[in-house]
Structure formats: C-alpha cells, structure tokens
Amino acid sequence: MILPRRDFLAGATASALLASVPAQARTPTHNCVMIGDWGRQGHYEQGRLAACMGRVAAQHRSLYTVSVGDNFYDDGVQSVTDRQWITSFESIYSAESLKTPWRVILGNHDYRGKVEPQLLYGRQVDSRWYLPARYYSMRDILPDGSTAETFFLDTSPFISRYRGTKVDITGQDTAAQVAWLDAALGASDARWKIVIGHHPVYTAERRFDEPELIAALVPVMKRHGVHVYINGHIHNLQYIERDGIHYINNGAGSRIDPVAPAQDGGIVFPGEHGFMTVALSRDVFQFRFIGIDGRCLLSKSVNNLS
C-alpha cells in the first residue's frame, strides 16, 4: 500500500498529535526518536527535518536518539576533527532535546571514510555520540520495570557487492558477528528484543530485500523471538511484517528516493522526509513516522502479550 499525501493527518502539529494519544498509550513509556541516512551538511532538507525532530523530541520526552547509519555523506569522515562533525551533526542537531545520547551504528557510506574516528568521537569530543564498537547491545529498564534489549549491528560487511569497492569492509568477520548475535539474543531475558541494522532485511517493495541478510539474520532472529528490526539505507519510510517480525525502514533523514508499490500488505511513503518516534511499554512497542512538518504519517503498535 502506498499512502499518498492526501491520506495523511493534514494540518496536525506535533504537539496536537501527541496530545491526542489515547489515555492508555499515555501511561509511562520509554521514549526515543530514530533517524537514518542524514549527514548532508544541512542539504536535502536535513536541517529543516532536524528542527522538526527537535520539537517532536521535546514533546515526546525522548530519552535518546538512535541513528541507523549513513551518518556522513558521501564518504564518511577522516578524523575526529573532520569539519562534517560540525556541519552535518553538531550545528544541525542543536536542539536541547537532541543533546541527549545518540546511539549510533555504521552505514555503507561511513565505510567509505574512516570508521575509527566514529568509534572515538564520543570518548574524545562529544559524549552524546555513543558508538562503542562496530556492533553492540544495550539493555533498558522501562518505567513499568520490564526490560528491553536492543542489538545494534554492523551490516555493511555482510553485503558481498561492496567487496573491492570504496566501501572498505576488508577484514570484517561476519561469522563472528552472527555468533555474537546468536549468543547475546540467547542469553537475553529481556521482554522486548529489538535489532537495528543499517541495511534492510525485508522491505515493503520487495526489490530492496537483502538476500545475504535474510540468510544470516532471519533464522537467528526467529529462533530467539526478536520482535522488531529497524533499518535505514533505503531513502524513504516503509513498514512490513513477515513471520512475526516487524521490519521498519527509516532512511528518510535527508535525501529521499522514489518508491515502488508495496506488496504483501506492506506500506510505503512516497516523497516524504521523516524520522521515527518510539514509545515502549511492557506490552506495546508503538512507533510513528513523522514527516517534515510534524505530521504523523503512520502510527502503529506492535503488541507483546506473551
């Protein structure tokens, strides 16, 4: 299903949307915002969308921001003093509501530059930037005492078409990463298990499905009861559910690309810059796609009643 502009909640502001949430959904939740494919020195509407995200993050009481990769276009960064840290990050995401921690992963464009500065930046320059390793996990305790664990992946090394290109994935051990994910998911007793990677696994359009990630990740995620997979890379907003896992494509943080018709009950959004909000409680993972003018493009709840 493609949702055209006329089907959106025309004219609603971010604050009005949040105020209209049903009372049940306004119970204390663990809230954050997420964005992908953004670092273009303010161009391609990055700056305008960042301003909107700052306003929505304040209304949403966001605890942190998640970046799903492609943090710096076109060729990553070269050092912790690279000017893009200022022109694409510090001066763009300057709202107080976005000065909370940023939980970050790497995208393929980040691999076109040097990865090490992104691993070091949070320790050496700005502590809100959190990228402790190429892949890692974080556990959160929700306001109701339940738990969520998020597993942040490094998906570029899985994509064989990058070998021998400017996307330098040389020396990255994907078997070790899958073994880590399998063990970490298996050891987790969190009520919610969420996986975040830059590249899609399944997409609503189907044409951007990644067979190598389907083969490597889907059996592991299904075996350990993963509820949600979130990615960027595809420069638009999409959603589809496959075999009990909800796949959310959140790659519209700056330049956007055309979409094809969705298949198998999926949803795609043409021509919309945007980001996500997440509100997580014991039984519900609620996410929204928010457009550049603060309108809610999609609101969906994933239930966990086990």
Features:
306 residues, alpha/beta, 6 helices, disordered N terminus
* pLDDT averaged over residues: 92
Q: What is CATH's topology name?
A: Purple Acid Phosphatase, chain A, domain 2
CATH class type = Alpha Beta
Helices, by number, come to 6
Number of strands: 14
* Terminal CA distance: 29 Å
CATH superfamily: Metallo-dependent phosphatases
Order of helices and strands: HEHEHEHEEEHEHEEEEEEE
The low-confidence runs, each spanning 5 or more residues with pLDDT under 50, are 2-25
- Class by SSE composition: alpha/beta
**Using only CA atoms, what is the Rg?**
18 Å
Known CATH architecture: 4-Layer Sandwich
Helix content: 10-25%
Query: What oligomeric state is this?
Result: single chain
Beta-strand portion reads 15-25%
Task: Using the alpha-carbon principal axes, give the shape.
Answer: globular
User: Strands of the largest sheet, in order across it?
Assistant: 4-3-2-1-12-13-14
